[in-house]
Amino acid sequence: AQRVTQPEKLLSVFKGAPVELKCNYSYSGSPELFWYVQYSRQRLQLLLRHISRESIKGFTADLNKGETSFHLKKPFAQEEDSAMYYCALLGGNSGNTPLVFGKGTRLSVIA
Amino acid sequence: DAGVIQSPRHEVTEMGQEVTLRCKPISGHDYLFWYRQTMMRGLELLIYFNNNVPIDDSGMPEDRFSAKMPNASFSTLKIQPSEPRDSAVYFCASSSLTSRIYEQYFGPGTRLTVT
Fold first, then answer.
1. Position with higher pLDDT, A111 vs A98
2. What average pLDDT does this structure show over B63-89?
3. Nearest CB neighbour to A96, from listed B44, B101, B105
4. Which of A47, B29, B39, B74 has the fewest CB atoms within 10 Å of its CB?
5. CA–CA separation, A10 vs B21, rounded Å?
């Protein structure tokens, strides 16, 4: 079964502190992992995907197959990073299976 | 493109009433998803369509919930009768297999309150 676990419902950090949003997944095949973000009063949107190996708004995420994790990291948190973050898994190789989302972590960056 | 459009944005209704949520996907997208967001359960997939055909409705909580997609530009999610535990934000999203299905474009959501 495909499953995404985000152990923290709420994460509070001070501005300038490092941030790590945890995500663990369960999937027997080769997954694709994503992070979606929902800023206040905005729509849920794609932040980054592991295949791209890119940094978006200072965030990076590395897929660790050994630990089945895809943690989202940023070295220095900013107030505008406060949002709801969802980790998502795309299983299956047909390309037409829906995303499986975690329950989300609300990040609060304190000035 | 205005993106995915949902209506109404807010709905307050009394227990037992019928509620209909509406969604217009992005033109050209062939996948449409309905999600429910709550504090306790996070983002749950209720049902999704491909080319207007329901593919998987296993996430629909009960028979009180039904969804239709009569054409490529319109979908509804109906709750009849509604109950207080249905209070949540309901999102519609669309995507395209020909581009990138994982990049789902979400609507602004409908905040449903059942009293």
1. A111
2. 96
3. B101
4. B39
5. 29
